[in-house]
Design goal:
By secondary structure, the protein is an alpha+beta fold. About 35% of the residues lie in helices and about 25% in strands. The longest helix has 20 residues. It is globular. Bound molecules: flavin-adenine dinucleotide. The site of flavin-adenine dinucleotide has 31 residues, from strand 2, helix 6, helix 7 and strand 10.
Length: about 290
């Protein structure tokens, strides 16, 4: 049952931050409500005040600025799967968003809510870590950027301060020739494992840069530097026989844990399978 709460209707980010500071643990930001209201209904969390950010202007835009795709935190999954700019400049994100949850959740749920809730079995964070994205956090009078790699601290825990608002996700668009792939596997509502690969090829089809991230397997999405090292500098042909070794390295850094979605060993196996497929998909775009 949902207990009574008071709804605050701020009209600016400093106002949201001021309310968070004033009411502390008894208040929480409310965006789409798809996670928050469920947790409140189930009695897992209790807040006396919800701070509705839907009336705050400027948080729902998508634009490209100096080679960076800037996504407002209030953009819904549905908007991102269909936005022409996202579809044209970062189709891998549009594809990921198309496969989040179901249409009802995608219509209401925002990317900001997804990232800030930091549920381990979520999709966007893994791709954002691989892309080297950063999160813009604002509070009254200040702004700062948090690298996606340090934003996800643990399950349900982010690098945001209690009175900070996530306002924008800033994603550097990879320079061509690049390939990007995010693949996930699961048999429950949310994914058991997700793997993202971002690769850029240089002269004579050698891998000039590669970033690999693994999500859902452990408490938070993580980069897999050991896997990257194995593949970096190799030609695509040389990389092919090393994918198994890279998959095993990615599995080691994933900090997989056994849970409802599968055992640690099962998830580590799936990381290897997905890494291979995601690499092949990304490489085919270069
Ligand atoms: C049935 C179901 C299936 C799902 N399947 C998937 C899936 O396959 N993949 C996947 O990735 N996700 C999945 N999800 C999760 C879904 O993506 C999230 O529920 C949604 O994105 C949350 O967004 P929201 O706007 O509703 O957040 P809310 O519920 O409004 O907020 C969530 C949390 O984030 C905080 N918050 C929100 N916005 C901000 C902000 N701007 N700054 C600071 N804090 C903020 C809130 O205070 C709250 O703690 C699923 C959810 C459901 C219910």
């Amino acid at each position: 049952m949902l207990r009574r709460f008071r709804l605050e209707e701020p009209r600016s980010v400093p106002e949201v931050s001021e309310l968070l500071g004033r009411y502390g643990d008894s208040a929480k930001i409310y965006a789409g409500g798809t996670e928050l209201l469920l947790a409140m209904k189930e009695g897992l969390v209790r807040y006396e005040r919800l701070i509705n950010v839907k009336g705050v202007p400027g948080l729902d835009g998508v634009r490209v600025e100096d080679g960076t795709l800037c996504v407002g935190s209030l953009c819904t999954h549905r908007r991102l799967e269909r936005d022409p700019l996202v579809c044209e400049r970062l189709p891998a994100l549009a594809e990921l968003e198309h496969n989040v949850a179901n249409v009802r959740v995608r219509e209401a749920g925002t990317i900001g809510g997804n990232l800030c809730f930091a549920e381990p079995h979520a999709d966007p964070g893994t791709l954002l870590v691989a892309l080297g994205a950063s999160m813009r956090a604002e509070r009254a009078g200040s702004k700062r950027e948090i690298a996606a790699e340090s934003f996800f601290v643990d399950a349900y825990e982010t690098g945001l301060e209690p009175d900070e608002v996530l306002t924008e996700i800033r994603i550097p668009l990879p320079q061509p020739p690049s390939g990007i792939a995010y693949l996930k596997f699961g048999y429950l509502e949310r994914p058991s494992v997700g793997v993202a690969v971002v690769v850029r090829s240089g002269a004579s089809r050698a891998i000039e840069d590669i970033r690999v991230a693994v999500g859902c397997a452990g408490p938070a999405p993580r980069r897999a530097p050991e896997a990257e090292e194995i593949l970096k500098g190799k030609t695509f042909d040389e990389a092919a026989p090393l994918l198994e070794q890279a998959g095993a390295a990615a599995a080691r850094t994933a900090r997989a844990i056994s849970d409802l979605h599968g055992s640690q060993e099962y998830k580590e196996h799936i990381v290897g399978v997905l890494l291979k497929r995601a690499f092949q998909k990304a490489a085919s775009q270069c």
